[in-house]
Specification:
heterodimer; A: mainly alpha; 0% strand; B: six-stranded mixed β-sheet
Amino acid sequence: MGKEFKTISIPTSLYKKIEEIIKGTEVSSVSSYVTKVLRESLSRGQEKHDVFSKEDEEKVKERLKALGYID
Amino acid sequence: MIQPHGGRLVERILKGEQKKKILDKAAGLPSVTLDAESVSDVENIATGVFSPLEGFMGKEDFHHVLKQMRLSSDLPWTIPIVLDVGTEDAAKLKAGGQVLLRNEKDEPAAVLHLEEKYHYDKEEMAEKVFQTTDAAHPGVAKVKSMKDVLLAGKIDLIQESPTSFARYKLSPKETRVLFKEKGWRTVVGFQTRNTPHIGHEYVQKTALTFVDGVFINPVIGRKKKGDFKDEVILASYEELIKNYYLKERAVMAILQMEMRYAGPREAIFHAIIRKNFGCTHIIIGRDHAGVGTYYHPYAAQDIFEEFPDLGIIPLFFRSFYYCRKCLSVVNEKICPHPPAEQIQFSGTKIRDMLVKGEYPPPELVRPEVARIIMEFKNPFNE
């Protein structure tokens, strides 16, 4: 199974700017740079869910008390 | 509180009527007996340690993880979580059906909703995960000994298997409540498979200076010969925390899981796990999860560059040593003195002294910790 890629378009001026920025760095290509920046950006908007209910939380607290983790 | 990896803490534990239903029909289900490491994987999936995984990986995720270090959803994930069975056993199982997973004592541990069976290339798996196919590498040896077919599908835990360390076993749900109760908004995770020396303590306390609490999280499970026994690690850390840490700033709980010794890939995996436990930061030191000379000492730090979307902040530490001139624990960035003044925190050296029955000097190991280790007749795995 090879890597799967899609082609997207960005303005030539932006492309050239990125080329300049990554010169001499470990980033191997404009595509790698854009991928990295997008992943970073998208991770900030990750969907958030409540982890557990109040009832669950109370049960957990009882166990933590019994084990001596909380007073 | 930091979000779990993938945004949702997985919980797949059967309770009440659901559990009874499965147990009632358990005798009629095809079954597979797991080794202790796979039982730990099942429990880690079920309790959310491996969130967002809900079961053993299918072929698509498996290949994505090997080749791209990401799940097919693009979420960072570096270690395949798979369940191997022999060809004959696999032939008896049907995709779409349920499989009872038994622990080593033959007790029902979980039910697998079998979605897929597939073959895989062990050489490829070893090469990608461990960057070597050398059978002397413990992770490679494990892969080479695996059976030929992988089973994939969601699991539901029936019951946790007994452990001698139950008192230290917390799920991510529990650590998250614990951190909240302690009022910690920022928490640094410390992964360990060793008894603590002064260098470890210095790293933890340096990190703790910048966050609200430290979560010391020893890995309990299969390790290599010569590593400290699990009970020794726990007893020595108990002693260290009791004597040298503020109770409101440090907690310890175990992570029941085998070490893979996959160096950089495992560092990312460890970071994801600590994120699920609710840590905002993780300490990554020299040769994290490494073995022998298979990985560059700082490869496990460099790899984080590839994961800007990991969601947990790594704190990178160089090697520390004790300087006789500075009279303190230092590193190359802050100490101007020559190597002759340095006492290195060499695990091998400390181990050799303990084997000979000698107490390591207090610059290397706290006397209380050394005493606890010495109380064990044989503190090392055989």
